[in-house]
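Q: Start with the shorter request: fold the first protein.
A: Done. Sequence, then structure:
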Amino acid sequence: MARVTAEPTLDRTMTLGDGRTLAYAEWGDRSGRPVLLFHGMPGSRLLCPDREATESAGVRLITLDRPGYGRSDPHPGRTLLDSTNDIRELADHLGLPAISIIGWSSGGPHALACVRGIPDRVTAVGLAASPGPWTEAPAIWDSLAPAVRALVERRIADPDEALPAIRKRLQWYADDPDSIFRGAGANAEQPDDRLLADPEVLEPMLTWLREGARQGTAGYVEDWIAELGPWGFRLDEVTRPTFIWWGEEDDLTPRVHTDALASGLPGAHVVVYPGEGHLAPVTHWAEMLAAVLDPSVGTSAP
């Protein structure tokens, strides 16, 4: 039975020091150990991969809208490291001790940025189906679609000139956020499709995407630029226990990303799931939580 949910226990906003609004949600045990989940690109705060596993682990799960998504104000020009200031303020606002962080898909670079930017606030980090930095791995650059490479090169040469083209490329999200899952469930041979054939998985994920598009492409554009530009740090500067999870049939994040992360992150523990795809957190959330909560247990897992 699917236990994915888009209905948090608490759904609130706070005002950051620079006056921007930051939206966040909470799930599970509010007195439990805090775990922060960074959503993918695009997406929003409204998704918990497995409510029952979160509650059983005694976890206080916190999700947030990155700037420009959902109810969080945009922060034009933000970098990955800039976003760590928002996490520090959120942790202070909630009175959190040091936290474990999981980044799903494009949430991964933001999770790593927190380890680099606010290492005193992070105990461990997990990366699920996460991209790596093309600046450290030529194979990642080669794996990008030619149109994406061309747009990245335009952005490097002239950021202002490239911005309209980036917005145009991502406009589909503002026009029709449901389109990414249209036809989902039709291919029983594909593991993600098998999961999305279940309305109890598909409907929460549609809610998650629709909420992210509340402000059109604002958050998506900021994320795209931050992820596909220089990250502002090297992988070998990440100094906390790190876990990498990847599904062998993940069509969205090719193996070259996992390989680059595994070779660049000191002492990273890698788990590859045969027969799984990009939605591996839906089926392995309990295992992922256990790993970041107790890294000694996570590194001994088969």
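Q: Next, the second protein, separately.
A: Sequence, then structure:
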Amino acid sequence: MSDPLDDVDETLPALRSVLDAAGPYLASLPGRLVYDTAAEPLLAELRGPLPEKGTGTAEAVGRLLRVGTATGTASAGPRFFHFVIGGSTPAALAADWTVSLLDQNAFARASSRFAHEVETVAIDWLRQLVGLPSTWGGALAPSATFGNVVGLAMATHWWGERHGVDVSAQGIVGLPRMPVLGGGYVHPSARKALQLLGHGRDTVRGFARDDVGRVDLAALRRALSDLDGAPAVLVATAGEVNAGEFDPIADYAELAEEFGAWLHVDGAFGLFAALSDRTAHLTAGIDRADSIAADAHKWLNVPYESGYCLVRDPSRLGRAFGMPGAAYLPGPDDPRGGYALLGPESSRRARALPIWASLAAYGRDGFRAMVERHCALARHLAALVDAAPDLERLADVPLNIVCFRYRPAGGTVGPDALNEINRRLADALLDDGRVFAGPTVYRGQAALRPAISNWRTTAEDLDFFVAVVRELGAAAASRT
């Protein structure tokens, strides 16, 4: 096979083969291994030199399906608790297939009026979902990391304006270092965004009052006061990754208003706490922020890649991300312009379709129910941990993460040995494959921090998870 045109009749059969594989794969998710190390040798089938002559659509797609369904991590399933990863709801999965079918370039209205309209509605629905004012806007991005890039890029432009500089045209060379302040929860993705923007990941000054990372508001106030009126950026975290804790966003907003600072909120998954009356207090004050980054591929349960940034003043997006003139490209204010001129990417997949489909299919009530169910499941897991003689919970459970460790019952184990047991346990979990939860360090203690964000997860999955953890923990402890 040497030319796709010679293979055109294989299009529909290849798509049918994907559909045929989808049925058994999706049906297997509730009980399959999250990762099957025994299948790893199959990965060799993907390797080799670039073919001079292709094998054709049917063979290539068939091989990819055979290897992928055997070796892919079942992160779409109910027993994946590593990182904070949602699955793909039925509406989101079907819409994502539609994205590839239509193959729209969501660069601008000029390239796809359909993609532009879906994105416009999706961004507004995301705004409404968390109760932000109608004057807010936003931009979709590949991830919360790029959502942080969007928000902190606008902060950079705002900061440059305060110094009389258009950083779009002139950059930040010659300006003083941009003050970026927060507590102890600032996530590496926000630091990476600052790194990409030229400020450096170490520019963040964190003011924590304890080894958990809770912010020292008095110290933060003093630091802002010491700037003597110079513009600064505050970074608050809605949903810290080890235990799901929150910075006091309303207090940050008070400081931002008092000192004239920009407030950016990293709400990768924690922003969704705003959906429920039971957890909305955690996000109090988000409407007073200037920018908020979040992920749709976490708690909204749409496929990767899908992040976004919501912004108080949408007019700043075009100023920060509008491209220099090219005769064939529309500008950010052109009626034929669009979202590529309001965010970091130019050629863009129509990632708004799964977001729109999910919100249309399930509405605010559906996602509120899912958030509340997951928080209840986290409390169920915490109760299982508290009841087990060989498990120890290390933190409160404000949202959907339970931070705990294995601690052998009936014996005295020193802190170093206990950390080693839990490091072995985390490695064993990732290799065992029945459930998936990875390692962390909390207050100097090696631990696990399973996060519940998949729409399929049930109490039975968490019961099974605890049983596996205790089994592997006992094996890890026996080797000390």
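Q: Describe the second briefly.
A: Residues 11-77 form one domain. The chain is about 40% helix and 10% strand.
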